[in-house]
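F.,

This is the one I mentioned.
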């Protein structure tokens, strides 16, 4: 209710002290449920109100949510509400991210939350990391090297699907940002202008850590899953495709052995993963690198369209479609 009223009144300049009142409530409340409700209200306000309106109060909001989200908070419901509020405040704390000390505190809080024993807190923390990468890629080099490479790989391996999905999404987001940076840089060069951002090539640097995990997750298909239901194997395939577009030729040497080892595997999960991985790397590497591999693989792919397992059939047909779309010259019609 408070959040709904605030969303109407605050943009009009009315009830200007509502955030201050809520923050005071957090610091004085002695019951966890009051803190949770207050943090939820702040989160909803941050989500629904234009970030420019709240930017002037970013320091006080950030102080409150970080206090609730840090590892000293024993109540995990409070911590979850605070992490969610932090997620919703990320757009208007840009000035805080420019300050190294404040940025360090935010990143430490989120990274520690990924290690919480509460699944909801972990998921929310990885969601925060995804959003932070989208908004603040330029500030992430230090944190990637110190913590995020390892934390996200651990998250990808989690038995909890929601955690694994968010950790995979983190790397898909890294690739999205780096693909966009490459396109922007090429465009600026064509215009003869200076490109003033840095592509840190996180995906390339992390290839040896991230790729084996992704390939393993490709084998986690659920035979009974709804085809419209997003799952770990599907997320891994999407991420692999984005990595191929990001690192280009560098994706080929580490993926081909996985394909060769598993394309004839008796376990259909591994056969399907091999086919899916091959189809996923066809967009990115140079045609000259892929063509010999595709020409060699075509007879096998055609044969696998008759595989007794439906998922293998579907993936083989999809991969052949990708070949026709991207490397049609490999197909020789006698």
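My design for it:
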């Amino acid at each position: 209710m408070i959040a709904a009223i605030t969303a109407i009144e605050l943009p009009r300049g009315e009830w200007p002290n509502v955030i201050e009142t809520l923050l005071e409530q957090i610091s004085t409340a002695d019951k966890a449920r009051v803190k949770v409700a207050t943090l939820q209200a702040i989160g909803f306000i941050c989500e629904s109100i234009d970030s420019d309106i709240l930017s002037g109060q970013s320091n006080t909001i950030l102080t409150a949510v970080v206090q609730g989200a840090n590892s000293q908070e024993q109540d995990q419901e409070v911590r979850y509400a605070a992490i969610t509020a932090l997620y919703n405040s990320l757009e208007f704390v840009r000035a805080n991210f420019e300050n190294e000390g404040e940025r360090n505190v935010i990143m430490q809080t989120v990274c520690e939350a990924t290690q919480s024993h509460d699944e909801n807190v972990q998921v929310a923390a990885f969601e925060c990391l995804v959003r932070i990468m989208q908004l603040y890629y330029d500030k992430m080099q230090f944190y990637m090297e110190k913590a995020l490479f390892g934390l996200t790989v651990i998250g990808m391996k989690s038995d909890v699907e929601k955690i694994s999905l968010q950790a995979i999404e983190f790397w898909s987001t890294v690739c999205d940002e780096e693909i966009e940076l490459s396109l922007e840089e090429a465009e600026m060069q064509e215009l003869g202008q200076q490109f003033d951002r840095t592509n840190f090539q996180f995906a390339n640097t992390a290839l040896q850590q991230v790729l084996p995990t992704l390939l393993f997750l490709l084998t986690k298909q659920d035979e009974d899953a709804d085809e419209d239901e997003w799952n770990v194997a599907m997320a891994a395939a999407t991420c692999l495709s984005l990595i191929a577009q990001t690192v280009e030729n560098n994706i080929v040497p580490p993926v081909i052995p996985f394909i060769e080892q598993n394309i004839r595997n008796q376990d259909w999960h591994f056969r399907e993963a091999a086919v899916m991985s091959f189809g996923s790397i066809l967009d990115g590497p140079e045609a000259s690198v892929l063509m010999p591999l595709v020409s060699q693989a075509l007879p096998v792919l055609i044969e696998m369209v008759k595989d007794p397992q439906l998922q293998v059939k579907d993936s083989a047909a999809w991969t052949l479609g990708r070949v026709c779309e991207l490397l049609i010259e490999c197909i020789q019609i006698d």
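The radius of gyration is 23 Å.

Talk soon.
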